[in-house]
Amino acid sequence: QITLKESGPTLVKPTQTLTLTCTFSGFSLSTSGVGVGWIRQPPGKALEWLALIYWNDDKRYSPSLKSRLTITKDTSKNQVVLTMTNMDPVDTATYYCAHRRGVVVPAAAYFDYWGQGTLVTVSS
Amino acid sequence: DIQMTQSPSSVSASVGDRVTITCRASQGISSWLAWYQQKPGKAPKLLIYAASSLQSGVPSRFSGSGSGTDFTLTISSLQPEDFATYYCQQANSFLYTFGQGTKLEIK
Q1: Are B103 and B12 in contact (CB under 8 A)?
Q2: Which residue in chain B has the smallest CA separation from A114?
Q3: pLDDT (0 to 100) of residue B45
Q4: B96 closest CB neighbour out of A49, A64, A105
Q5: Residues 3 through 62 of chain B touching chain A, CB cutoff 8 Å
Q6: Which residues of chain A lie closer than 8 angstroms to B91, CB-CB?
Q7: Which of A2, A39, A40, A47 has the most B C-beta neighbours within 10 Å, making it the best mutation to test the interface with B?
Q8: Among A82, A85, A84, which Cα is nearest to A115's?
Q9: pLDDT (tens digit, 9 = 90+) per residue, A28-44?
Q10: CA of A48 to nearest chain B CA: how many angstroms apart?
Q11: In chain A, which ranges are E strands?
Q12: Phi first, then psi: what are they for A30, rounded to 5°?
């Protein structure tokens, strides 16, 4: 059974750096083809993909946010960490981590298991 | 970037109705498309991947079709638990863009 859970601060100040941790079980990020992504959703708005890390440590980012994002993995702890620098009130959103469904083509990603999400508010 | 445009933005329907939601990509994406269902306060749920493949455990009343730039999600006979927001997602080229969502409401 695959589960994921996000953790991190619920409130950050503008200009601060956000660090979110995704702790998962039921799969290993050392298995070929496996990936974990981050997706966010501002209140009442659509989903936005942020980043994806693969079993081989390949990392992909949304072009619009690439300069602010870093995704890393700790295979031994079954964790993926996302950092986002220079937070702004427009970054207020629920942040989800999700498991990449096994797809032969590395460039493709469907997200079949999701965490419950964590709401991050950016305010002074 | 590839833009994904869904229509309509919202739709009202009754239990038992057949409903179709459309997603259009700004450029061809072959069959690299997914559909998700999201209920208020919950994480999205994968319904369809590769444009027409039903995710395990998803009822067969859900179906997807299309390729290239035009895709549809069809619910053949609406059930009370289907009232939610639906999102399409472009799934290739390391750029995973979502549509703006379609809210399915009870008439």
Answers
A1: no
A2: B43
A3: 98
A4: A49
A5: 32, 34, 36, 38, 43-46, 49-50, 55
A6: 108-110
A7: A47
A8: A82
A9: 999 999 999 999 999 99
A10: 6
A11: 3-7, 11-12, 18-25, 35-41, 48-54, 59-61, 69-74, 79-84, 93-100, 111-114, 118-122
A12: -100, 0
Closest alpha carbon to B35 in B78, B85, B77 = B85
pLDDT at A6: 98
Chain A 84-123, CB below 8 Å of chain B: which residues? 96, 98, 101, 105, 107-112, 114-117
Residues B23-35, mean pLDDT to the nearest whole number? 97
User: What whole-number distance in Å separates Cα of residue B25 and Cα of residue B2?
Assistant: 7
Q: How confident is the model at residue B39 (pLDDT cuts 50, 70, 90)?
A: very high
pLDDT at B49 over 90: yes
Residue A54 tokens read as 């693969």
Query: What is the model's pLDDT at position B33?
Result: 97
Q: What is the pLDDT of residue B10?
A: 97
String of b and e for B4-21 (b: at least 16 CB within 10 Å)? bebeeeebebeeeeebeb
3 state SS of B82: helix
Whether A107 and B92 lie within 8 Å, measured CB to CB: yes
C-beta atoms of B44 and A116 within 8 A: no
